[in-house]
Amino acid sequence: MTARQKDPQVKIRDYDPRRDRSAVHRIWLETGWLEKGKERAVDLLVGCGRALVAEIGGKAECLVTSAPGIIRYLEEDLPFSGLTCVTTSRIARKQGLAKQLTALTVAAVAAEGALVCGLGMFEQGYYDQFGFGTGGYEHIITFDPSSLCSGEKARVPRRITSADWSMVHASRLDRARGHGSCNFNPPEITRSEMLYTKKGFGLGYCDGPGGKLSHHFWCWVKEVEQGPYQVMWMTFQTREQFLELMDLIRGLGDQVRLVKMREPQGIQLQDLIREPFKQRQVSEKSKFESSMRALAYWQMRICDLPGCLERTHLRGDELRFNLALTDPIEQFLNDSAPWRGLSGDYVINLGSSSGVEKGKDETLPTLQASVGTFTRLWLGVRPATGLAMTGELSGAQDLLQRLDSVFCLPEPKPDWDF
Ligand SMILES: CC(C)(COP(=O)(O)OP(=O)(O)OC[C@H]1O[C@@H](n2cnc3c(N)ncnc32)[C@H](O)[C@@H]1OP(=O)(O)O)[C@@H](O)C(=O)NCCC(=O)NCCS
To answer: Domain spanning 304-406 has what CATH number?
Structure first.
């Protein structure tokens, strides 16, 4: 075997737009995420928060970015950080660069005060290494808009373009939000998403105070003439506004044959489809196939256990137990990191006011969990008895059953893809 040349030195540092802009575009081109002409969308996204690069031979070859926001836990909004991009160029794969930058980014945002961190995963398993746990299923429905049950005729909407990014962002922040919903603070994130959208267009209404955009949707268009159109997001505050947007979508049905959208929290969209089973059968395997798919593609992790529990106000019984928590992220972080994960022994108190102390109480039952699985339990992704079957969580059956009744939560839905 011939001796391989030693790899050039890797340097990890903050993104610098003057030095790294074109190298970052190249990374995105190589991952297939960038179409020529959409570079501004990438620049805006990178500028929304933290951005770390790994440099090889003086050029950025790996990029990890995050953006600040909030996540709702029942009635409380908690500081949140979303990982908005993890990308490695073709020449730098499998060098451990994405792992290093991801761990450093989580440590940095945790040290800055994010109580929870989240991401959209490319595959199951990779981000478990950093303590992320998989979220619940999202329902993705595709349907013929003319198969929507008839409602009222929608009023003439306002046309929305990417130039409206500022008011669109405000409308996203003001939308009706439920448990697990995320908001990102920088308006440029919406601007970036709108510029990035293929043949993007939106429709909506400005019924808010002072003519603010009250409800709207924004679409990604695969083919203008017949669709599919994908609703990237929809904002509304009331039942009437939601139904008006669905009426607008139905109104496209004389021409457009397929619309795809994520089911909004708490709503069963199938209720609005006429003959959903017939629609599925007659369109099976066609270009315009009506379907319903379930996908669990987002992940979250707790970054600050006392901070999260302080804001946890549950509606059921009180429960006190030991938690032996493991956090795999620590293997990627050395002593110089500003935060090194949550591994340790804790005594947890759950109830209308919750809390945590360091240590162990020998009189209490003990739950063993990884931080990823504990995050799933805390968010309400699955009950303790279910997580004990397939996740990294174990304890006495009695404790698991009591956890099931204490963590009786609505299904968490971020309602913002990133
Ligand atoms: C995903 C991506 C960022 C990884 O970059 P990278 O710098 O090569 O990753 P790393 O070197 O840190 O890690 C690679 C290791 O993770 C492992 N890995 C990959 N997928 C995994 C999974 N689903 N579960 C567990 N491990 C996984 C690989 O096998 C590899 O292990 P090895 O080093 O022991 O061979 C890169 O492939 C990429 O840019 N893909 C396209 C863009 C994308 O999808 N980004 C992720 C968005 S969420």
So the answer is: 3.30.1050.10
CA-31 nearest atom, ligand 1? 41
Q: Give the distance (Å) from ligand 1 centre to CA of residue 95.
A: 9
Indicate the pTM of the whole model: 0.96
Q: Which fold has domain 139-295?
A: Aminopeptidase (3.40.630)
Of 53, 65, 86, 121, best ligand 1 pocket probe by most atoms within 8 Å of the beta carbon: 86
Instruction: Calculate mean pLDDT across residues 230-252.
Output: 97
Architecture of domain 10-134: 3-Layer(aba) Sandwich (3.40)
Structure tokens at 385: 């008895």
Give the Cα-Cα-Cα angle 135, 137, 141 (nearest 5 degrees).
145
Which whole number is the average pLDDT over 317-346? Answer: 97
| Ligand 1 center to 260 CA (angstroms) | 29
Burial classification of residue 313, based on how many CB atoms lie within 10 Å of its CB (0-12 exposed, 13-18 middle, 19 or more buried): middle
Q: Say if residue 48's pLDDT is above 50.
A: yes
Other CB atoms within a 10 A radius of the CB of residue 317 amount to 12
The closest residue, in CA terms, to atom 34 on ligand 1 is 94
H helix runs in 260-341, sequence order: 276-283, 305-310
Ligand 1 centroid vs 231 CA: distance in angstroms? 29
Atom of ligand 1 at shortest range from CA of 119:
48
